[in-house]
Amino acid sequence: MVWAAPMRQADLFELFILQARNDLELTANEALGEGVRPDTWTFNFDLTTNTFVADLWYDNEILAEEVFGAGERPERWFGATTFDPFLLSRNIRHDLELTADTVFASAVDRPVGWNGAPPINRCSRTVQNIIRYVEALYEVRPLTDQGEPDYCDQLRFELEGELIRVSLSPIEGFDFGSLQERFIAARGDLERTANDVLGVNERPADWIGFIEDSPSLEQDLNTDIEILANVIFQGLGRPSGWARYIPDSLAISFFNLRYNLETMTDEALGDGIRPGSWQGQDSTLRCEPLTQALSAILGDLFGFSPNRDVGERTTAQFCTAFNQQVNNYADNPPTEDFRELIDDPRDRVFSGEAEFAWAFLDVGALDYMGAMPPGTRFRAWYRNFQESTMMYVTGIDQDFGVFIDRRFTDLDPDVFARLPTLDGVRPLTYCNASWCNGPGPTPTPRGGSAVERLVLGAGTAVPDVQTVEEVRETTGKTQVSWNHIRVTYLLDRPEAGAVQVALEICAETAQINCEPVNSVLDQTLGVFKPVVGVFEGLNVYEVSYGYSTEVVVEGESFISPDIWISDPTLR
Predict the structure, then answer these.
(1) Could you write out the DSSP letters of every residue in 8-27?
(2) pLDDT higher for 463 or 367?
(3) How far apart are CA 309 and CA 321, in angstroms?
(4) pTM above 0.70, yes or no
(5) 57 near 92, Cβ under 8 Å?
(6) Which long-range contacts link 37-42 to residues 24+ away (Cβ below 8 Å)?
């Protein structure tokens, strides 16, 4: 199985394997003597041969036999796990570094002429495979400084946080509801372990326990796990691999907390021994969280399902086999499926399905084109500014390019937040699908509008609409009037009776000492007008022509209870 690569990638690959050959020869000189080699050494330095990578691997293994002994390898040795030359060369470099650590007596002592490789090549196969999939499929790059002395540990911490959160966010099954049930089950198992360790219903004074409908269920679980861990490990710290609580990601927090719970239960009760009625029946939950996360990613991409039968194996033996099973699959995915996924990874990441989403030809939600039937597939391209949930999408199976509200789709909020904004962009809108019917007005009265508040994408509705006097009293801002507002007219929409404007609010009617308008509250609808763009650092709003007293225009220091917007004939 050989995958063709673009020329630039091929050049870098050739450099990578040539440098590996050079470093292998330097290591062999140190281990065996200058120019001394085993009889079966290939001496292949010719990149044009089809066996260059295979011969490099073979010589690396022959040297390992000499350094570690026949059939002996370090525990972290990769070996040959794939026929893919790119991945095989990755394995060779990783294993060569392990050999060099022994030959040169440290991980930093290397001879003159040593090429080396980026530090990720020293990390575990799980870490390298997750990075590979996250980069290829989600276009997210790690930010860990390659100069960090403990680079692989720091990279693992980064993976446990942002990178895994991004990669798990599109996966079905990690919704809040199902995770709540899993956290509650973990809480039940924690109490069972505590009963066996401390005594039935005996708990430390600072124990939080299970509080029904608690908004801090996950944090409370983490706190009590750490309290019980202090007892079980007798205040001697935590075992290697103890996972962190990641409050920003429910999915990875579940993996981490369940792993910690299983680890300390093994320590307290014995390997694989669990109290009665234990709910954590999935044996993979006892294994390293990053391996679980990689398994979940592969399951979503390819339908991968690992063998969960522990049999007579210890936890360590099972998790070693689980790790190998997951990483072997990651190294050898269904080829065509994987190539399709990485042809344009953004198409997959930013794709979703509508759930009765209303479609509009404009981000201000004035030109209504109809409701997308459930299951209508789209690709999202841009999002509106600030707290707005409006986004521009195009059809995957149908012909449309419209604005819809993310809340009426299955697109994950984390994925939505990664979309580029509409700053400087005016996407072409059209609607030729069978459900398109317009343009027409939004199908609600202009004054009623719980539905319209949703469609406008202006964030949450204001529960108690304040008068300008109330705003002034609570904020201490100075009240001015409409002639203190500097209006920059950008785009007239006479068919809608409105214009897009950039607004500033000023200390004087001469419109000097001005500051940007941060919000425009429509008191009739009880919502803040959506920001539809940015012009020279100022928010852009779409406002109706004429004089209005049903608004609160607010800047950092000033507020106004009215605004005047000229129509084109008066300018």
Answers:
(1) HHHHHHHHHHHHHHHHHHHH
(2) 367
(3) 11
(4) no
(5) yes
(6) 38/62, 38/65, 38/66
> Are 442 and 508 spatial neighbours (Cβ–Cβ below 8 Å)?
no
Length of the chain: 571
Three-point CA angle 123, 127, 132, nearest 5°: 110
- Give residues with Cβ within 8 angstroms of 432, minimum separation 6: 398, 399, 400
Give pairs for 304-310: CB < 8 Å, separation 24+.
304/329, 308/282, 308/283, 308/284, 309/283, 310/272, 310/283
Decide: 360 and 388 in contact? Cβ < 8 Å: no
Cis peptide before 119 (omega within 30 of 0): no
Give the Cα separation of 458 and 441 in Å (integer): 18
Tokens, residue 258: 């369940």
pLDDT band at 442 (very low <50, low <70, confident <90, very high): low
For the chain, the average pLDDT equals 84
Q: What percent of the chain has pLDDT over 90?
A: 43
Question: Which strands, in side-by-side order, build the sheet including 478-479?
Answer: 478-479, 558-560, 551-554, 519-522, 527-528
Domains and CATH numbers, the chain: 7-168 (no CATH), 176-340 (no CATH), 350-431 (2.30.30), 462-570 (no CATH)
CA-to-CA distance for 538 and 331, rounded, in angstroms?
49
Contact 195, 323 (CB under 8 A): no
Unique residue bearing structure tokens 């091929």: 10
Has residue 223 got a pLDDT over 50?
yes
CB 209 within 8 A of CB 224: yes
